[in-house]
Amino acid sequence: MSAVSGIQVVTVFGGSGFIGRHVVRRLAAQGRRVRVAVRDPEGAMFLKTAGDVGQIVPQAVDITQRDAVARALDGADAAINLVGILSPWGSQTFERVHVDGARHVAEAARDGGLKALVHMSAICDPATGAAYARSKVAAEAAVRAACPEATILKPSVVFGPEDDFFNRFADMARFSPALPVFGGPFPPRLDRRAGFRIDVFGDGGPRMQPVYVGDVAEAVARSLDRPDARGETFELGGPRAYGFKQLMEMVLAHTGRRRLLVPVPFGPMRLMAMVLERLPQAPVTRDQLKMLAADNVVTEGVRTLADLEIEAMSVGTILPTYLRRYRSPLAQRPRLA
b/e string for 300-329 if b means 16 or more Cβ within 10 A? Predict the structure, then answer.
C-alpha cells in the first residue's frame, strides 16, 4: 500500500448495511466516487440518490470469493470492509465471512497497491468463548498480516435511526408489559435511597458504551486521509458506559412508556436460544448470549474517537430524534390546566 494521497475512488464492502449507508453518504458528501460492493446490488440502489449521477455505483460482490473482491478493487484508491454477520446461516459462517472475507480484501488491497484500507471489527473479548469474538480477532490478524498499514476500527454497540438495539426494545415496549434486563444471577444490594429496599438488579447487568453511527462513519472517512491512522487500531465508544438496566430505562423514558423491568438470567435464556438459533435470522443465539454476558466498553489507554478529533455524541442527545415514533399517544398529549 502506498502513501496517502488523492483518494478519489473508494470501494465499500457491505455499504448497504446499517453502518455502511452512513459511510457511503459521508464519502459522497466529500466528493469521492463510491463503489458499493454487496451481495444484493438491487437492495443498495437507494444509496444512488445520496450522490450525483454516477457517483455511487452498487455492484454484486461476494466477499468470500477472492476473484470477485479483486475485481471490485480494480482501479480503486481505497477499500473499506464493513461486512459482518451476527449469527451464521448456511454457507455464511463466521470463518468464511469474517476471516476469509477480511483476508481477501486485505490481500487484494495490498496486491492492487491501494492507498488505504479501513477494516471494521468490534469490541469483543475472545475469553467469552464466543465464536463471533474469535472470528473477529482472527480477521484482525489476517488484515494485519496482509496490510500492516491498515486502520482497524472496533466500535461498541452502534446506535442510530436504523439500529437493531434501541429500535428493537422500543418496539417491544409498545406491546409487552415488561422489558428484559439480561444478566445475572444479579447480586442483590440494599438501596438506602429507595427506603432501604432490595435492588434485585444489583449492578444493572453487563455494561455497554453505545457509539453514534454518525461518529463511526466520520471515523471511517477520516481514517482514509490521516497518516497518523495508518497501522493503528481505534476502539470507538460514546461519552459514557451504561448498565443494561440503564439502557432499558432510557428506552422507556424516550418512548414515554411505563413498563416493568424483569431480570432475565442467562441460564434460562441459553435454553431458549437452543431452539431459536435454529431459525433463519435467529432473534438470539447462545453465541450472542456469551458476548452479551461480558462488558462491551472501550479499553483504558487505547486510541479512541478523540484521537481522530471526533467528539462523541451522547445517547441522550440522539435517541429522542428517532425513538419518538414509538412514543405512547398518551405521553404526547398536552397537560390540561
Answer: eeebbbeebebebbebeebbeebbeebbee
